[in-house]
């Protein structure tokens, strides 16, 4: 005898229910996978971070370092014209070439921060110890160097430029504990490294005279 294979109605209903639940679960899983893993930032949050990316220490560092670099270029250009040795003349070229782009960078930051440039401000009071060399200001230093020639010029230039570098390193180190702008902080580290290396080079040249 042949028997027909029938599925009980109860079993059919149970299977249909299980299929419905399975599809519902799959649909829920699909929605969950597309859901964000972290809450989106509140509107304007990114703008607030950008707007607060600098502080007063950043602007003061940029202002003072521009003036300081301009003084270094002025001294370096005098060394290019008056130095007795090729080594000191080459150093003058390198100092002038390195400080120019840094001034442009610092100037750009001040503009982006909505700050006035040093040339547009009263710079009185900014000529503190970091701006002086052997207790002399920039004008006095330039007058002294302009009256020297030969190895006398080279020796005095190196002595005063070492002092000038000391001031820049001091400013950069003091700023690093107070600044907020990441790019300005990176530049301050580069200034410290570069001017320490140049100071060592100048010390070696000075001892060789």
UniProtKB/TrEMBL annotation:
Record domain DUF305: where: 58-206
Signal peptide: 1-31
InterPro entries: DUF305_CopM-like, Ferritin-like
Entry keywords, A to Z: Signal
PANTHER family: SLL0788 PROTEIN
UniProt name for this protein: DUF305 domain-containing protein
